Amino acid sequence: MKKVSVECRNICLSYGSTDVLKDINLKVEPGEFFALLGPSGSGKSTLLRLIAGFNHPRQGQLLIDGKDFAQVPPWDRNIGMVFQSYALWPHMTVWDNIAFGLVERRLPRAQIKQRVEAALDLVGLSAMAGRRPNQLSGGQQQRVALARTIVIEPQVLLLDEPLSNLDKNLRIQMRQELLSLQRRLGITTIFVTHDQEEAMTTADRMAILNHGTVQQIGTPTALFDFPDNHFVANFVGSMNILHAKIRDVDANTITIGLGQSPSICISRHQQADIPTSCLTPGTTVSANCRPHHIRIERQAPVDSVDRAWISGTVQSSEFLGEFTRYSIQTGSERITADHPHRAGQSVWPDGASVAVGIDIQQIRIMEASHD
After folding, report:
1. What are residue 213's phi and psi, to 5 degrees?
2. Which domains occur in the chain, in start order?
3. Residue 334 has what pLDDT?
4. What b/e sequence results for 70-79 when a residue is b if at least 16 CB atoms lie within 10 Å of its CB, and e otherwise?
5. Do residues 142 and 97 make contact, with C-beta atoms less than 8 angstroms apart?
6. What are the beta bridge partners of residue 366?
């Protein structure tokens, strides 16, 4: 089957006087696994339903393989959709659920049999063809929903939070199977989720949405390492957003003041598209760093040149298995630091006086937060 692109051009959608999607522009490449990520109410499911044909834009174009489908009804789009609830027919067997779309299309019986058997084999459910949905586990029901969608050979596969009803271990297993299946089929896939881990482990690229607008589009690593704004920085992982002042700027270096630490020199090359408004000495900016780029010691090493050290007091800690997360007060700032856990390792107690070392190479400068 031909791989197709999906493109939104200036898409706007309103419910009454409420703007739900505002000037959406994005392009999903042929065969790409693309995620729409955002909090509840951000517009991601509304956009997915628009692509499916259940919603229609107030303005803009929806291009599938270069043709505008914005006003085409859903039954005339070769698009498959897997819903959060799976929406399986409870009175039908697995076989009949998968065959349903082909029967509705009045395909020859032999062709239906061939396609259903191939879909069952693809999702590993050949032995369960005679069972009904209530005789299946959540993961097996999800496979049936996928097989029912794949069997019609859609040009585009839409997934609306299909893993949200599964427990954590099964979610991990199913997202790996889902990605493997997508790679084998090569089908253009758009996946809606509010779970950053799901998006980052499956998507080739993703779009972050908030309040109906696209905040940033890019690969998971690009969005994690170089967020465009504070919303993306905090939504894709955790971020320390610290107040700093620009002290000096030259062709290669930005010098900032951060808390009670000495001046910190940061290479301009490690900053992605830093706004010019942040390059004037005396300007207040945000110096951002991820919790795992912070080290905690009893006192700052005298010979440390790769870290900016600030004194602080441990306020609390959380044991999260792979790491312990500390909340540390440093002057007027609260810093979060993640330390890998090792058996037998002692934990910094609440109230402990510590030195916090921020990896200078990992500091990202942005315009000052207005929160």
Report:
1. -125, 150
2. 6-234 (3.40.50.300), 238-367 (2.40.50.140)
3. 94
4. beeeeeebeb
5. no
6. 286
